[in-house]
């Protein structure tokens, strides 16, 4: 399962309204068919920590560090989860059987387009939450500059 999503540094209202409509349609069909809706990707939060620091947090309950991979390639942040083979075999061959398994353990891949000048500075996994630290480092020459207007100068035209 692969999801490509533009990474919003600032909340995009239209995107969330559009996504919400699809979520409602998915829930409606799920009620009619009795199937559980499948999330397109792990649930996530984006939090501003400071003027130029952000944190992207993904919900990945039950995943181990060794099963998760984070990489950046050409301005794109890719996060994937792949279950270890021994765990797959253990689940299939064991006499242990799940009565209910509501925590998704399907392999996943989520991709985000990072805005220009945003870099990943670190990541941590704690209590089923994968936190990815982001830094927006805009060079001084590209930052907005205020230009003062000198009201006292008058241009004169000389013939």
Rg? 23 Å
The first-level CATH class of the domain at 2-8 and 41-93 and 101-138 is given as Mainly Beta
Helix/strand-derived class? alpha+beta
CATH topology of the domain at 2-8 and 41-93 and 101-138: Immunoglobulin-like
Which strand-content bin applies to the residues? 25-35%
Low-confidence stretches: 7-17
Organism: Halomonas dongshanensis
Protein name: Hsp20 family protein
Domain SHSP: 35-152
InterPro entries: A-crystallin/Hsp20_dom, ACD_IbpA/B, HSP20-like_chaperone
Walkthrough of the structure:
InterPro entries: A-crystallin/Hsp20_dom, ACD_IbpA/B, HSP20-like_chaperone. The structure is a single chain. With 159 residues, the protein is α+β, with helices and mostly antiparallel strands. The protein has a domain at 2-8 and 41-93 and 101-138: Sandwich (Immunoglobulin-like), CATH 2.60.40.790. The chain has 2 helices and 8 strands. It has helices at 13-33, 85-93, and strands at 2-6, 44-50, 53-59, 68-73, 76-81, 108-113, 118-126, 129-136. The strands form 2 sheets. Strands 1-6-5-4 form a 4-stranded mixed sheet, with no helix packed on it. It has a 4-stranded antiparallel sheet with strand order 2-3-8-7, with no helix packed on it. Strand 4 and strand 5 form a beta hairpin. The longest helix is centred in the N-terminal third of the chain and has 21 residues, at 13-33. It is elongated, with a radius of gyration of 23 Å. Mean pLDDT is 76; it is low at 7-17.
